[in-house]
Each structure stands twice: as C-alpha cells, then as structure tokens.
Write a structure and sequence with these properties.
Strand content of chain A: over 45%
Structural class of chain B: mainly beta
Order of helices and strands of chain B: EEEEEEEEEEEEE
Distance between the termini of chain B: 37 Å
Number of helices of chain B: 0
Order of helices and strands of chain A: EEEEEEEEEEEE
Shape of chain B: globular
Oligomer: heterodimer
Number of strands of chain A: 12
Chain lengths: 110, 115
C-alpha cells in the first residue's frame, strides 16, 4: 500500500523569502509523484510531476521538487515566494491508486 | 483541449433529499475519480471509474454511488443527505496506465450545502 505524509500543516513565510514544503511517501512499488496547488474555492491544479528520469523536476510558477528515493521524499521548493503563492499545496503518489497528503497551507506575508 | 467540467457549481439541498452531480472529463481520458473535500477531513477519495466500471472505491457509506457512461462522462449520487455531506466535491480525469493512472486533472468542483 502507498501513503503520503506532509509534515507541515501550515507554513508562513515572508514575501521574497525561499520556501520548502515537505512530503514523504511510502510504497512497495514504483510510483509517480505529484504536487498540486489549490486556490480558495477552486479545484486542484497540477504544479509538477515526477514520472522517471531526472530527479529534479521543474514546474509552473517557479516551483521545483526533488525526488529522493533513498529518503522517500519529494519536497517542493521555491527560491522566492510571492503573495500570489498563498494557497493549499497537496503532495500525491500513484501506484495502482492515487493517494493525497493532508495538505500544507502556505501563507505569504507581505 | 477543454478541461474537466463539473455541474452544477453550487447546490443547496435539504436533509433527506438526494443529489446528482455531473462530471465531463478531458477528451480522451477514460478514468474519472471523485473526491470529497471538507475542512476537517481534507481530501477523501470516493471512487474511480474506468470504462464504465468502478475500479477503486474509498471508505464511504452506500449512500454514495456513481456511474460512468460510454462517453466517459460520470455522475455521482448521494441519497438521504446528511448535514455532514456538505462539502466540495471534486472530479478528476486521467489517462490510464496499467492498473494505475498518470496525473489527474481536476474540475472546479461542486459546492454542496445541506441544510
């Protein structure tokens, strides 16, 4: 069975500061990994995905994530956040079924 | 390509009533999944349909049901509504990969309020 753990439920960060949102997964099979963003009263939007190949994945809006198989992690990073990045972020893993983490609420402080 | 569409966007129902929500996937996507999202429980998986068959099911009571049509459009139905069913219901479509799927693409959701 697979599972996803997002270690931080809330992350406040000042505008233009860097941010890292943490995600760990467990799986006994090969997996694909994803990060999604959700703005208030909207559906989830795909930020980036890891299917295979390079472990450093770049996504939209300046976000990137690194797949670390030995640490079973897929942390999301951005070097400089903007007010518009305030949203809920979800990590997800899929093998035979999609599993989502509980989400991390990112608040960017002006 | 057009994205995932869900109708209606907002719905208000009374306890005991039933409701049907609709989802049209991205063209070519044959897998449709449904999720319930609430502030307290987060994102919870309801079920997944592929080729008109339920392929995976979450841990929800039998009041929650779904179906998929030959054009991949899907509906979910909730009977005997309870106050706790108030939530954002999200639909997602994807291409299929063996027993699993690739990335899911989400619709804007249907906001259901039960009074």
């Amino acid at each position: 069975a697979q599972s996803v753990t997002q270690l931080d439920s809330q992350v406040p960060v000042f505008e233009e500061a860097p941010v890292e949102l943490r995600c760990n997964y467990s799986s006994s099979v090969s997996v694909y990994l994803f990060w999604y963003v959700q703005y208030p009263n909207q559906g989830l939007q795909l930020l980036l995905k890891y299917l295979s190949g390079s472990t450093l994945v770049k996504g939209i809006n300046g976000f990137e994530a690194e797949f670390n198989k030995s640490q079973t992690s897929f942390h999301l990073r951005k070097p400089s956040v903007h007010i518009s990045d305030t949203a809920e972020y979800f990590c997800a893993v899929t093998g035979n079924q999609f599993y989502f983490g509980t989400g991390t609420s990112l608040t960017v402080i002006p | 390509k057009a994205g995932v569409t869900q109708t209606p966007r907002y719905l208000i129902k009374t306890r005991g009533q039933q409701v049907t929500l609709s989802c049209s996937p991205i063209s070519g996507h044959r897998s449709v999944s449904w999720y319930q999202q609430t502030p307290g429980q987060g994102l919870q998986f309801l079920f997944e349909y592929f080729s008109e068959t339920q392929r995976n099911k979450g841990n929800f009571p039998g009041r929650f049901s779904g179906r998929q049509f030959s054009n991949s459009r899907s509906e979910m139905n909730v009977s005997t509504l309870e106050l706790g069913d108030s939530a954002l219901y999200l639909c997602a479509s994807s291409l299929v990969r063996g027993k699993g799927s690739y990335e899911q693409y989400f619709g804007p959701g249907t906001r259901l309020t039960v009074t």
